[in-house]
Amino acid sequence: MNPMDSTKPVALSRWQSAPVIIVGAHRSGTTATAGALELLGLQIGQRLDSHRESRALQHLHENYLQRLGATWDRPAPL
Fold first, then answer.
1. How does residue 50 score in pLDDT terms, banded at 50, 70 and 90?
2. Tens digits of per-residue pLDDT, 6-15?
3. pLDDT class for 5, splitting at 50, 70, 90?
4. Distance of CA 2 to CAs 5, 9, 12, 27, Å?
5. Judging by beta carbons within 10 Å of its beta carbon (0-12, 13-18, 19+), is residue 66 exposed, middle or buried?
6. Which residues pair with 51 in a beta bridge?
7. I need a labelling partner for 34 at 20 to 30 A (CA). Which of 48, 54, 56, 63 fits?
8. What is the DSSP letter of 74?
């Protein structure tokens, strides 16, 4: 049996179904990376902003920073 035969159903491996998280600093190319991966067929997600970022994760991060008394452009000291 040829594993590359596309006529047979193939179960997804652990890596094919694993989530992909793109992490990077401000202006580091994460939007371009997400866009390229989406063009290659990666399901990026839903409810994204113009930078392909999850609004739900943005709110989670903003709430966390607020509890620390900080903002994205004014982080609290560690």
1. confident
2. 555 556 666 6
3. low
4. 5, 12, 16, 44
5. exposed
6. none
7. 63
8. B
